[in-house]
Amino acid sequence: MHDQRMRQVPAQRTSIVKTIQSQLILSFTIAILVPAIITGYVGMRIISDQIFTRAETKTISDLNSAREIYRNKLAQINNVTRLTAVRSLIREAVKGRDRAFLAKDIPRTLYREQLDILTIVDSRGTVILRGRNPGLYGDNLLGDRFIDQVIKTRQAQTGTDLVSRDELLRESPDLAKQALLNIIPTQKSRPRPEQQETSGMMLKSAVPLFDDGDNFLGVLVGGVLLNRNFEIVDKINEIVHEGQEYEGHEIGTATIFQADLRISTNVKNADGTRAIGTLVSEEVYDRVLKEGQRWVGEAFVVNADYITAYEPIKDPMGATVGMIYVGVLKQPFDDVLQRTLVTFLGITFLGILIVVLMSIVLARRISRPLKTLEGISKKFAEGNYEHHFVAKGPIEIEHLASSLNTMAHQLEAEKRELEEWASTLEKKVAERADEMKKINAQLFRSEKLASLGKLAAGVAHEINNPLTGILTNSSLLLEDLEQDDPRRDDVEVMVKETIRCREIVKRLLDFARQTEPQKRPASINALIENIILLVRNQTSFRNISIEKQLEPSLPDLLVDPDQIQQVFVNIILNAAEAMTKGGSLTIRSGLTPGRQNIAVTFADTGPGIREEVREKIFDPFYTTKEHGTGLGLSISYGIIEQHGGTISVESFVGKGSTFTIQIPIVTSENPLDSI
Prior knowledge:
By secondary structure, this protein is an alpha+beta fold. The chain contains 17 helices and 21 strands. The strands form six sheets. The chain has a five-stranded antiparallel β-sheet, sandwiched between helices. A five-stranded antiparallel β-sheet has the order 11-10-14-13-12. A five-stranded mixed β-sheet has the order 16-18-19-21-20.
């Protein structure tokens, strides 16, 4: 009868080697692919941000250099004007209205110092001499803000000024022609109704003239027209960008704007000419000219993308009259980013390929001994205990094989003893009536050992969950992590969980011996956090949300952390298996009303447990699962009982189940120490 019951054990429908091997390979692939994608995305974003942040920082530095070059030009004009104004011959000629001398000296100074205007007016603003147009004089220039300010304050005035076409014509028709620009409609610029710009933007310095008695004689005005004058922008490009080129394009560009109009630039059109007369975008116009703020960012300039910086140019009265711009070609940075991306993706793909190949090798190494165990366990289930086998693989599997061999020898001995007793039972029934109780006891024991034979068939499934949890993260171990790598904590978790898995298998096989707990102070909340960290990546929890309601500041308990963690894991995994279509699991911890115990509850939203099943769930070897062993909750019940606590369950069909564990607050092996 004993052998007949064992032969009724159904054969497994799915080969365990296929299940574990495919799950391991899939888990390894997911474990490397997901971090690789996330790391790749985050890494490229960081690299991209760093590249363009540095480009913008360099552009701002270039803009500061361009500003200094612009100011140096202003200072040069101011120095020339001042030195001319302090010459005694000039002062005497102005005082004596010696136009003949001035008409010879002033033009020479103007051309020698490469000025566009050098004009002298008297103390009332009347023109004495124009260096570029000596024949036109006697008109009054009161209304010119620079001249008015010098006459009013007797102080020099230097800065940028807008000069009307009429004033340019009086100074020289050539200057008016130089300032005249056709406005070219430009992409994203603000609409401008006029088609030409007739005024000009000038670097101007006005200094007072005094005689030897410090009497104010008039004003000397010097200036350089910026329209179509490329001295400053070319100098900026030469000093800041050193004339570098990239694929036939200048890496750096500089521009001086009169309002939003390019009047001096080394930005080139498609035909290679300078982009004079083009407009800036409306976005930059609003930021720089209207608000008077600096603008830094990526922009399309005429015919290429640049990392740009714009800064307002203001006249001495604080009004914004134009802008100065520098830009760095964006294409070199894009190419660097693209090459980095290709290299990064290549390394990532190679890493994924290596990990997948390693996962296949490791999966086969683990699945082969499990397949052997599967075949032997089927023979045990059929009542054949004569096989002795050796399973080469991880140490836990080797220990399991050794325990199965020992169990088989014990079962075979019991079987032979029972057969011997059965052959002589009819002859000795009268004289060995007392021995019947012993035979019955031995028979009961044999049946329990036979049930442990079934345990061998299911033990691979029982260890599958911790193995899957460990091996899902073990791929990270293959990547030769640095000491400061943030993922190193996960690897350490996997090492600890590997040790715990070995202890679970050992305790499962030693179930009948009721191993004494190795107690030490431990935090219940910390154990729960560790368990959640362990199970969160498992496939069965993809559609399950875990909510923690842990009471802080709970006292540490004197418990065996591994055993208590085994209980919690068992209950959580049972809840996950009950919620195959998803749901939620709520874990609570807190003190009981009498504050003598710590209570931990696990409430799921699964289908619930029928009453007839609920009465047996803590019985050894009772299970409703096709491949279950029926030991999980029984072991959990024994562990909690050994800790002096209780475990109970409440369940309503269709609404879920709640497991409650209460553990006394004991902090010392001596009960009197906890009073």
